Amino acid sequence: MSNLAVGLAAIAILLVLMALRVPIGLALGAVSLVGLMIVRNTEAALGIFGDLPFEFGANWSLSAVPMFLLMGSIAFHSGMTGSLFKAARLWLSGLPGGLAVATNFAAAGFAAASGSSLATSAAMARLAIPEMLRMKYDKALATGVVAASGTLGALIPPSIMFVLYGWFTETSIGALLIAGILPGLLTAFIYAGMVIARCMINKDLAPPVGYQVTWGERFAVLLEIWPIPLLVIGVVGGIYSGIATATEAAAVGAIVALIIAAVQRKLTWEAFRMSVLEALESTAAIFFVAIGALLLTRLLAFAGLPMVMAAAVQDLAVDPLWLVLGVSVVYLILGCFLDPLGLMLLTLPVFLPMFEALNVDLIWLGVIIVKYIEIGLLTPPVGLNAYVVKSVVGEAVPLTTIFRGLAWFIGAEAIIMALLIGFPALSTYLPQQMMGY
What we know:
With 437 residues, this protein is an all-alpha fold. It has one domain (3-433). It has helices at residues 3-19, 24-39, 42-57, 64-77, 82-92, 98-114, 117-134, 139-149, 160-169, 173-179, 181-201, 215-222, 227-241, 246-263, 269-303, 305-316, 320-334, 340-357, 362-375, 384-393, 399-422, 425-433. α2 (24-39) packs parallel to α15 and α8 crosses α21 (399-422). The protein starts with a helix and ends with a helix. The model has no long low-confidence stretch (mean pLDDT 82).
């Protein structure tokens, strides 16, 4: 068997193992190790297997991952994010579908403190769904908006997905984080517009809340949410201005979150302990998968697959737009079955050489890939965000109802993706204005 055949066989076996629900990190590591033994030899494979985890863990830029996770955990366990939904509800409840719209924008605010789609969905499910169901909102709308708006966690900085994409592609992580701002806001506003339009047409979806909110109440609640804007300004402002790198901004964000929680006297020992444990557990899980992906990259490089694919693209003179559309189909299909992190780290070693051969802007490409991966969180049969919401609501709402509510948001994503692909400046404008980019 040729080296190229070994590389192709490794990808096929990986897809089968992941379809069988074998843990993604284990599947990547085992298949890559066996493949390296075949392509090279056992001694070389074990040497690579021993060196790569240290090389990966010693990467300074990846220090942003645990710091962003710690920042989000502290913000959640100290109650900083709990007032976001309350504030959005008081300001937006008068709109058609106001509670759903409030949930959408509160999720955007939570995403700016967590960097995780699943964490955003879980938190907003606990805060918002009981309130919407109490007000007789349509169950599909109430659960669908929570699951869909959770995907904003992968776009609005800090975003763990962008950190890992930047490390893998050797692209500026700071520029990638800033690139997610406009697409994230675009997604939030299109979601909100769709909800308002539906509720104007069908008033039974979201009955009026039935209570009056004074302007005094609206302005008073703003005093409760000041920590989140402060965190966002500190992290995003530091990166955008060039004062701090993404890694430095992540550390500052974690420290500021800790100080704010202490000043507000909400930093209990239990909250601190849970925050640290969650950050450690999530970091370990992410790094385990990433190390497996790094081994796969090394295997494919030895097998010669990236060079073959890059040469084929150059020979065919493929238009970058057609390549993006073709890859989009792959991500949409695989996204129905694979978890986001595993999907990105599995496909990048295969697709990246083709895009580099066509000189595609890797910042724009990063936004497109992360968006498609997040759409995979909404599509059946896996649809992880839907399952997160289901775990919170229990038997109150069937899983089929949640996916029915998500269908409208997946339709909205078609519009969003058309805009992002058709107008790359939506992703690249802010990074181009950054100092040092």
